[in-house]
Amino acid sequence: MYRPAYAKNDNEEDLRDFIRKNGFGIVVSTVEGKLWATHIPLMLEGNKLHGHLSRGNKQWRELPQNEEVLVIFQGVHTYVSSSWYDHENVPSWNYEAVHVYGKVRTLSDEELLESLRQLTNKYEKDSVHPVSVDTMSHKFLHTEMRGTIGFEIAIDRMEASFKLSQNRDEKNHHNIISELEKRGDENSVGIANEMIKYGYHTK
Fold first, then answer.
1. CATH number of 5-169
2. Distance (Å, rounded) from C-alpha 138 to C-alpha 133?
3. Domain limits of the chain?
């Protein structure tokens, strides 16, 4: 992963919190000798990620054969206009991303059920009428489960780039935040908040 020195974030708890908040990841591996990527929700538990793939997705058949897989998690991101600086420069893009590398293991039926339970509970908690695997009929649930394969990724390492204009001086850093807040869309405001959180590096 390309990481400008000022954008590196090696704080493990920051990265874990980021994954919990941005759990829709991209699992990248090789299938029949070619790169293959699947976009799926994943759960972080301890030093492992777990999720499931459709059995119709042939990626699962070769996952155990890979020495290492890559999972990409993307956060907020937005365009930064160079017109916001007090000097001539080029436009840029601010973003947050975490790459996770690890080995894969296939889950048992019992482990898959627990993985599905955790995933559903996480995303149903704010629903007016939450769905739960525990209230689904046994026949329906296990019929659906037959169409999926659960897996777990034991994390070997994580890399992150939180590119948030940390290389700008205080004045320009504040200018960028102000302009992003004026723009007002979700990504711009999200990046502005992250810029406030992490600050700037130059003095």
1. 2.30.110.10
2. 9
3. 5-169
Name the one residue in this structure whose structure tokens are 């070769």: 62
Phi, psi torsion values for 140, nearest 5 degrees? -60, -50
Report in angstroms the alpha-carbon separations of 134 from 38, 52, 123, 129: 27, 18, 15, 14
Please tell me whether residue 36 adopts helix, strand or coil conformation: strand
From residue 84, how far is each of 12, 130, 174 by CA, in Å?
Answer: 32, 45, 10
For the stretch 96-147, pLDDT in tens is 999 999 999 999 999 999 999 999 999 999 999 999 999 899 899 989 999 9
pTM of the model: 0.93
Q: How far is it, in rounded angstroms, from Cα 65 to Cα 51?
A: 18
* DSSP 8-state class, residue 63: G
Separation CA 46–CA 166 (nearest Å): 30
